[in-house]
Amino acid sequence: MCGIVGYVGQKDCAPILVEGLRRLEYRGYDSAGLAVHTGRGVEIVRAVGKLSNLDAALKKNPLSGTTGIGHTRWATHGRPSEANAHPHVAGHVAVVHNGIIENHVQLRRDLESRGVKLQSDTDTEIVAHLIDEAMRQGRTRLSEAVRTALGHVRGAYAIAVVSGDAPDEIVVAKQDSPLVLGIGENENFAASDIPAILAHTRDIILLHDGEMAVLTASHVEISTLEGTRITREHKRIDWSPMQAEKGGYKHFMLKEIHEQPRAIEDTLRGRVDLPNADVVGAEIGLSAELAQRVSRVYFVACGTSAHSAMAGRYWVEQLARIPSTLEIGSEVRTRDPVFVPNDLVVAVSQSGETLDTLAAVKAAKAAGAHVLAVTNVVDSAIARASDGALYTHAGPEIGVASTKCFTSQLAALLMLAIYMGRRRGTLDTDGAHRVLDALWRVPAQMREVLARGEDIKAIAKKYLRTRDMLFLGRGTEFPVALEGALKLKEISYIHAEGYAAGEMKHGPIALIDEDMPVVVVCPRDNQYDKTFSNMEEVKAREGQLIAVCTEGDEDVRALCFSDAAPRSSTRGILSAAEPDVITIPEAANEVQPLLTVLPLQLLAYYMADLKGTDVDQPRNLAKTVTVE
Ligand code: F6R
Q1: How far is the CA of 241 from the centre of ligand 1 (A)?
Q2: DSSP string covering 266-296, please?
Q3: Which H or E element spans position 319?
Q4: Between these two residues, 137 and 596, which has the higher pLDDT value?
Q5: I want to staple 6 with a disulfide (CB 3.0 to 4.6 A). Which of 135, 166, 190, 394 is the partner?
Q6: pTM for this structure?
Q7: How close is the Cα of 6 to the center of ligand 1, in Å?
Q8: SS3 state at 349
């Protein structure tokens, strides 16, 4: 996830572009750059790090002109460096890009075989060269060259292009990554998101997938990538700048919860090979030879990442049949664990900076283990300290409580388990196809679950005055129960505990009475009957059941109905006539955790918001924990 912005008009564009990028910094901030028509052609200035570094670079090398594009980057291919920062240049063409080009390896090879020398590790530079080639092959209009180049590209992109041969225009195009156009008086804008242009215009046009536009100071000409002209009226936006930054959502956390389908799509993009029922090895960070040789998988992580790692452990055992274990980062440091050379240590960390996980990685490396980082930040400390990296593509997460990074980690770890299972022959084609097909359908199913937000809010309202909550789940729903409890305590400050449902009778059952809400994650999976029995045990002790189950499960619904007439308990919990049941669509067992966690995230969110806590920055917590 990166931010792009473009301006064409009569004003000096560099300050407008930099200000626009500042409003998009939430989309990424590892490097930034501008390309501006200065009268001497297109000139670029780029800098690694935050935008203040670009400001400083522009003071040294000012860019003056009225047509330009800018970019703030969140690395997906290639570490954050000046060479990898956008814009990327080929011939007279400069390009900024947000998205992931799936066939970049092949395109790179093709360009190199034609003698092109690429300067960066990015997928974007390839697009710049394809456009430049098309121009040199006689596509005289920039828009025609862009159209020809995009004909070779597969994947997600929002691009903005300028060329020294077309000083008064910007060409933009979009497929699966956001792009809005801003319509002004003798000036026009393009950007990844509305906040970047809101200071200049409130009249916007949303570009759709498969469309491109040519922007000049006085015109915006939209067409499909095939060349059919499109007329689209602009819309007037009345959001405040703050609302716009949160995409109209009240909090970043809620926005990020709703971004999960897109985060999963981006994490799967270019990695799932459905026709061959496999996962693309080059993207996993682990060689086929190593995947075959590993004798144990040792997961290390903290907090939410430890919950996804726990699911990863279950999947590696089930699908690749490799003995696996999970250790909390801080405990790896405390104990003196024994790693052996054929251990694969998988370090899961959204930030890639967590000190306890980093220390575990260093200890494992020193002991001769091979380490694979699963992280959301390219070239982060944990990625650098590891032998390979499997990147999640969730984009920056601003809410302190992790949501989209968690589900992206689940998707990445499930792909890892499938990859290893295929290499070791424990997962046959049919089995792999079944799971990958289910995973591919998850984003659409997530959208269905997220559309049930109002029902979940109604449940949250009922339990607002509760002081404690239990969360139960079995198998891969156990980490989901742990995650649901963690989310609730982090942001609402309500005490919550997650337990393996089978563990309830070994202690926690003593807590259950009419004042104890118990959230049970009970989709139809191979643990269903046992978890259902646990729900009956809760009900028998008058606990308040809240269930996450599969659509159409009338048994769970009937069980959650309260026999008693609505009443108040000592803590003001209403036992209601309507059962507290949230459903997920039918899905393969393996992908259910990606769906069942969504209602729990929303439950925590609404309980916190209704209580009025600081949802995005809960007390005492930090996004990146770099202390012991
Ligand atoms: C909870 C949360 C934390 C982190 C933990 C590890 O919502 O975000 O529990 O998961 O601090 O952080 P990373 O994943 O960056 O290593």
Answers
A1: 29
A2: HHHTTTEETTTTEE-GGGTTS-HHHHHH--E
A3: helix 303-320
A4: 596
A5: 190
A6: 0.83
A7: 35
A8: strand
